Amino acid sequence: MGRKWNNIKEKKAAKDKSTSRIYAKFGREIYVAAKQGEPDPESNQALKFVLERAKTYSVPKHIIDRAIEKAKGGSDENYDELRYEGFGPNGSMVIVDALTNNVNRTASEVRAAFGKNGGNMGVSGSVAYMFDQTAVIGLEGKTADEVLELLMEADVDVRDILEEDEAVIIYADPDQFQAVQDALNQAGISEFTVAEITMLAQNYVTLSEDDLAKFEKLIDTLEDLEDVQQVYHNVEFDE
């Protein structure tokens, strides 16, 4: 599990050098979630989930409020949720999730990003079967045993609980995400270092220095695309 947490940390660390891009992507995701249901997180689980994740990225309140107000205002801006799958250098696998109001533009940009950086697009299902959708929640100030005990008392099932880098990391089935958070909230824990449902690779690959450089450029190019919300992969990054 350690390598999985390392890749999550690597993704979260990227926000420090691209906060404006991260905030813009959250603004779009919050707008879509608010428009698809009630613009109230108490009655809209999808919106509540996005807002919980936004907190771990320190998304400013004015960006959240603006996106929700835009949804309340009846904007006719619509987005399609798309998933692309592809391959990078030497057996690396990539999943790209996007929100777009122009499917042809997004498909062209994603395809170009793969093609120009040593990769190629795959068909739907060619990569995703090698990943598991997983709820990941991280917190500090508790031991793994303490967290396990309070989750057991709340009758919440999880896949694994580990202590890594002075944090406790909980891995659970996606449908247990809210139950885990509720149990932690009831125990007085409301601040999380990570709180999201992600795609974790079943197996990871290590690339040569040259291939890793190409792969990092591929990931950077994909994440810089305006329509791309999330990028998942199976490459081991150094600690």
UniProtKB/TrEMBL annotation:
Main location group: cytoplasm
Highest rank taxon of the organism: Bacteria
SUPFAM superfamilies per the UniProt record, alphabetical: YebC-like
GO biological process: regulation of DNA-templated transcription
Signal peptide: none
Alphabetical list of Pfam families matching this protein: TACO1_YebC_N (PF20772), Transcrip_reg (PF01709)
Domain TACO1/YebC-like N-terminal: 3-74
One Gene Ontology CC term in the entry: cytosol
Similarity remark: Belongs to the TACO1 family. YeeN subfamily.
Protein name stated in the entry: Probable transcriptional regulatory protein J2S13_003195
Originating organism: Oikeobacillus pervagus
